[in-house]
Write a structure and sequence with these properties.
heterodimer; A: 383 residues; alpha/beta; 3 domains; six-stranded mixed β-sheet; three-stranded antiparallel β-sheet; 15 helices; 9 strands; B: 306 residues; Rossmann fold; five-stranded parallel β-sheet; two-stranded antiparallel ribbon; 13% strand
């Protein structure tokens, strides 16, 4: 066990360790640290596995933090346990740790960016292209400010329909459809059997979580104005909407959108993603999404909206598999395709054909009329 | 109850649960500090089992609350027995009690139906009960608020009666499959433990302990196969529960080692989705078995080196 005279330094060490964790991005509060200190009374502090287990149980509360915790733990307590009781100047430790964290934190990212950049250059030469492109471009470019205002209203209505779903919880309501037996008993307990008055209830309205994935590849370039308006309108209705953009790589911009306008956020992502407006690989983008973002962002009742023309240069097998996965994780899957509105369009391109079986709704979104149509459809079928 | 961390490991093993050092330490500390344990991990790694084993070690009752969306206070905490209250009123009336006395007693403990959380708080047995709050990630945010009072102070406030404090602090286990993040306030009150898929050696121990009839060589093949499957990209990776089911199935069928026909016939024990089964069949079961054998040999060499 620790000697009493040295326990002060041990406490310092633990506090230093919790600070290091905090700096590395693990949320640690003083309650956790106090728990940790309590624990030290019950374990042999020199026994590294036990000390590790105790620290992990008290200072971490999320799976995502475990890896950071391990790294920080090993660098902070890297020395053998019996030398711990010496007073090590704390600043030195922290500085080392910071160096380590900075190295560890930045390198893989910047390397990945380089990779992506290289990939992007190769792709940008041959973006997906459709013969209908010119026609549709005219459609959208011709939108006046007034029409944009109208479009925003329609989008707001669409989002409104999607956002409000009926919860399983009930709330009292005088003209509700169901009889509320609990309240009926209570209400009538005083009156006895004569003159029973029924209490009623209805299902509560619950806000749905909405996730929007926008295709920003080359073939979708001409709809970018629409896309920006779309995100604005959605965001106004559901402030905590999650938004992702993809071309050959998936980027989630929800966080950026919290502090910046839609245009600014998109510009920032465009700077980072070199193949912006390049080719499309929907399958691997959705795989990235399933792998890295789905767990945090999707709930069982999330409605997922994908805005894309479905032009895809990737592997259809992969796309099929990932669409299927995605389908399982969300409540409803809606695909808005700007091309669908053009006369004679058939979802023949491979990407679109692959995705089609997994969609709940496949709808046009290229001009005002199509949006109004979309709102009508949703209103009649959504529950 | 536990003398040391080694004692936890030993008693868990006695109940057929192979606990690693981290789990044992966390359980030991949870008992020592009187804090709930918050268990996370993929499905089928033995989260719920921890609570069952604890109940059996502590020789006490396991009170289980299965969470679901829409779970509310009336199902989790308590509810008034309305029909009984009505009857009581009628009886009092029939007995001719005075107007003032009628109905004075109907909001007392006699008319309370206890649900799992209240039951755990009021438990009167010799040892504190084990309260299992299973799959807490399935419940909604409102429910977490009910849990907060129970888990921080071990008390429940009923407006008509007052606050009921726990006579003895129950051992609380919360489990989550991590389909959503829980509120920090709730997690702060617990000791956190992530249960990973077992290593090859640990899984061997588990199989030996849970399916004692299995031959050593078959167990080795089974565990190697499972390790390989978990390293692959399946929609639902098989957990330890599947390993045990599979071992039992293979024994029932009288197989002594994994041959492709038997594996194919029993795939349903380990993979629960049609797509996953199709995927492994596409890869070719003989090839997968062969790969599992190579993986096993590599692991054996590594252990020998270490």
């Amino acid at each position: 066990m620790l000697m009493n005279t040295k326990s002060g330094s041990m406490l310092n060490q633990v506090v230093g360790f919790s600070r290091a964790l905090h700096r590395a991005g693990v949320e640690v509060n003083s309650g956790n640290v106090i728990d940790m200190c309590h624990c030290m009374g019950y374990i042999e502090v020199q026994n590294r596995p036990d000390f590790y287990a105790a620290a992990r149980a008290t200072l971490v509360s999320r799976f995502d933090d475990l890896e950071i915790f391990d790294t920080v733990f090993n660098s902070f307590w890297g020395m053998p346990m019996d030398t711990l009781e010496m007073d090590v100047p704390q600043e030195v430790d922290d500085a080392d740790l910071m160096d380590m964290l900075e190295e560890g934190g930045e390198d893989p990212d910047s390397m990945q960016q380089e990779d992506d950049a290289a990939e992007g250059e190769g792709d940008s030469d041959e973006p997906g292209w459709s013969p209908d492109e010119m026609l549709l471009k005219k459609d959208l470019a011709a939108m006046s400010d007034k029409e944009i205002e109208q479009a925003r209203k329609v989008i707001a209505e669409i989002v409104n329909i999607i956002a409000n779903r009926r919860s399983r919880r009930r709330v009292p309501e005088n003209r509700g459809a169901e009889i509320d037996f609990r309240r009926t008993w209570r209400k009538n307990a005083a009156m006895g059997p004569d003159g029973v008055e029924l209490a009623r209830r209805r299902r509560r309205i619950k806000k749905t979580k909405l996730m929007v994935l926008c295709d920003v590849s080359g073939s979708m370039d001409c709809y970018s104005r629409f896309m920006i308006q779309f995100i604005y309108a959605v965001k106004k209705e559901i402030p905590d909407v999650e938004v992702g953009v993809f071309s050959t790589r998936m980027t989630v911009i929800s966080r950026l959108l919290k502090t910046k306008s839609v245009e600014e956020s998109l510009r920032e992502v465009a700077d980072e993603v070199h193949d912006w407006a390049g080719g499309t690989d929907i399958g691997s983008c959705i795989r990235d999404f399933n792998e890295f973002f789905a767990r945090d962002m999707l709930r069982s009742k999330t409605v997922m909206m994908i805005v894309s023309d479905g032009w895809d240069r990737g592997d259809t097998g992969l796309m099929r598999q990932e669409m299927e996965r995605l389908r399982r994780r969300v409540h409803k899957l809606i695909w808005l395709n700007p091309l669908l509105g053009s006369p004679g369009y058939q979802p023949l391109c491979l990407g679109m054909k692959t995705a089609l079986p997994y969609l709940d709704y496949f709808m046009a979104a290229h001009n005002l009329e199509s949006l109004i149509e979309l709102a009508k459809t949703l209103r009649s079928v959504w529950r | 109850m536990f003398k040391s961390i080694e004692d936890v490991e030993k008693q868990f093993a006695g109940e057929g649960y192979i606990a690693d050092r981290t789990l044992a330490t966390t359980v030991y500390l949870a008992i020592a500090l009187g804090k709930p344990i918050f268990l996370e991990g993929e499905p089928g790694v033995g989260k719920t089992e921890v609570a069952k084993v604890m109940a059996s070690i502590m020789n006490t009752e396991l009170i289980r609350l299965q969470c679901y969306e829409g779970l509310d206070a009336n199902t989790a905490l308590y509810e008034w027995n309305y029909p009984r209250q009505m009857l009581e009123l009628r009886l009092e009336e029939a007995r001719g009690e005075s107007k003032e006395d009628i109905g004075g007693n109907i909001f007392g403990p006699d008319f309370l139906l206890d649900r799992p959380l209240l039951k755990a708080i009021q438990y009167e047995g010799e040892n504190p009960p084990v309260l299992l709050i299973d799959e807490v990630d399935r419940s909604d945010e409102e429910f977490e608020a009910f849990l907060l009072e129970v888990l921080s102070d071990f008390q429940i406030t009923i407006p008509e009666i007052g606050t009921i404090k726990a006579k003895q602090i129950p051992f609380v286990v919360l489990t989550s499959n991590r389909t959503r993040e829980l509120h920090d306030a709730l997690k702060r009150r617990c000791l956190y433990l992530w249960i990973d898929y077992p290593t090859f050696e640990k899984e061997m121990d588990i199989v030996a302990s849970r399916v004692p009839d299995v031959q050593d060589e078959l167990a080795r093949q089974i565990c190697g196969f499972m390790q390989l499957l978990r390293s692959r990209d399946f929609y639902k990776k098989p957990g330890v529960a599947e390993t045990i089911d599979w071992a039992l199935a293979l024994i029932t069928m009288g197989s002594e080692d994994l041959d492709p026909a038997v594996v194919d016939a029993t795939l349903g024990c380990i993979l629960k989705y049609k797509e996953d089964i199709e995927k492994i069949q596409e890869d070719g079961i003989p090839q997968v078995i062969e790969k599992a054998r190579m993986l096993r040999e590599r692991m054996a060499r590594q252990t020998a080196k270490a």
